Amino acid sequence: MNDMILETANLTKTYKNVTALNDFSITLEKNKIYGLLGRNGAGKTTLLNLLTSRIFAHSGDINIFGENAVESEAALSKICYMPEKNMFIPKMKVKEIIATSSEFYENFDMNYADKLCDKFKLSKGKKYHELSRGYESILRIVIGLASHSPITIFDEPVLGLDAAVRDMFYKELLEDFIEHPRTIIISTHLIEESANIFSDIIIIKDGKLISLTSTEELRESMFYCSGREDIIDRVLSDMNVIHTEMVGSVKVCVVHQKLEASELKRLQDENLDVSPIPIQKLFIYFTDNDKEATHE
Amino acid sequence: MNRLSNCIKFETKKATKSTLIFMLFLLVFYTLSIVLTLVEHSNNATYSSMGFFMPFSIFLFINVSISYTPHYNFLLMLGNSRKTIMFSQFISYFIIAVGSVIAVALLELISQAMFKPMHFNYVNLLNIVYRTNLTFVSTVSWYLTLFMAICFFSLFLGAMRYKFGKIFSRIFWAAFALSWIFIPPLLMVSGNKSNLLNFVKYFFGVDYNNGIYVASANFLIVAIIFGIITYLIGIKQEMIVSEKN
Amino acid sequence: MKLNFNNEKSIYLQIAESIEDDILKNAIGEETQIPSTNQLALIFSINPATAGKGINILVDEGILYKKRGIGMFVATGAQEIIMNKRKGSFFEKYIVSLMEEAAKIGISKAELVSMITKGGNIHE
Predict the structure, then answer these.
(1) pLDDT per residue over C101-114, tens digit each?
(2) How close, in Å, is residue A225 to chain B by CA atoms?
(3) Number of separate helices (H) and strands (E) present in chain A
(4) Which residues of A touch B238 (CB under 8 A)?
(5) Nearest Cα to Cα of residue A33 among A144, A163, A165, A161
(6) How far apart are CA A3 and CA A116, in angstroms?
(7) pTM confidence score
(8) Closest chain A residue to C50 measured between Cα atoms?
(9) Any idea where the domains of chain A sit in the sequence?
(10) At least 3 CB pairs under 8 A between chains B and C
């Protein structure tokens, strides 16, 4: 596909006797904002570190822009990956960090970086170790956005930021994405508030890819159905129910299936209540161990 | 190529800055100590650049190894291949070694210029050890290869520390401290019986013809060996980021 | 245009409905331009692809059309299209649920009819 910019095939990474990433194959397209979701330890950061050659895979391939990307500076120079953990030098001043970083990203826009520093009130004269946790995140945001790299990756970009600043970040990201379309990957635990900016969502569970769809498709992939227990058991018997709960005498089911209009009518005719699932809860059901739920 | 030169620029700038600051401190103390001895002993004083050279070498030794982890991670984050990072380290620290030679040379010249008119005894370290006429070439080769050996061995220690963590540093320094218990007795065996003493003499070219070049060659070999080992360790090193970097 | 989304429906559907409401209310007249996909994305803080999806629904239904090089415009007759569309689902959406709720709380059909007449009088 012409829109494809990043592809992994059968990527596997093991640490001692733990398989962090298992036979992982994914294809990412250009000019999309991907949300990368997964429980703690699911393998999100492992995947990102593998894509950028910070660690090495046990087996499998990584292709970026059609070429092998492992330890390839041609590929690495097109990626800006701002990690969750600190890799900056504590004694360096913010101004110097930004200036040095700009030399390694060919599309870096210094004017934009300065504008962002003003907007997010990041003082450039401070040394990195003097920054609070929130401002450490802001520095990563500034560099990540101003890099304008064809593939930009943020791992937990809003750690330590208050709601207003997080909001500012999402708006700024969208605005810059519209002006300079590129592929952005954001790994985050704050699903509900960031879901709207993603065009597509990647879900990882136990080192495996269990979902890669557009945000809308994901939202529509499950629904709540509730009603009297005997009715529900009869009506939903042929549907993929992945979770049930009793609320008093009402049974609530989570159905992993796309709901067509005709199906909806049928359920409502049976006096069953149907409602959508908030995306964060949807993610939890998806990655739960109750029942294997996979979605292509 | 652009990336390599940017990495070299970064490493060299950082190393130069900390080295210059240390040198300044050192110069102050060095000058102070000379002035004090001057006041105390007047004509019987003998000076050498040892007071400068030793602390400076120790500083280099420590500074290069503790810079390894932060520089490696920073440059890795900015999308550089390990090959580029390793090469930039070798080139940068070679530049630092050259800079150090210049610093020591300048100090020697200035010291000699200062003390000759005062009729004080100024001795050159190397004159004592090697008892030959020192030339510019021989002095430079000795200092340059020695600083290279210090830098590249220090890089090796940094790479090992990165790979194995704090435990490596602890074991290394414990072994270093313990060696002071065992080595001096081994060196002091009389006659030609001490193999260790003979090796040390050979390594530093003491009692050899052109000893200063023998030493230089040995220093260079040390630099090359540890440079290669460091490269081999670094080229396959997976990123390790601790919570407190 | 309302600026917040609820969890009841897909966001692109809510955008489409919001634009339809504005057209019905005459807040956006026929043959006037509506904000572009990118502008909508920024207004609502959503991905442009999502905003585009909502717009495309309206384009497919003939409510909006694209003027090349300029942007999206409300089609002539858009109001009528929307009204017809909504009339079609009016019965299911409002009448059926009205009857169900009335039955639930014991309102007879006659009472319902008189309520509707009363409501109609207020509106006039």
Answers:
(1) 888 899 888 888 89
(2) 45
(3) 11, 14
(4) 54-56
(5) A144
(6) 30
(7) 0.91
(8) A199
(9) 4-214, 223-276
(10) no
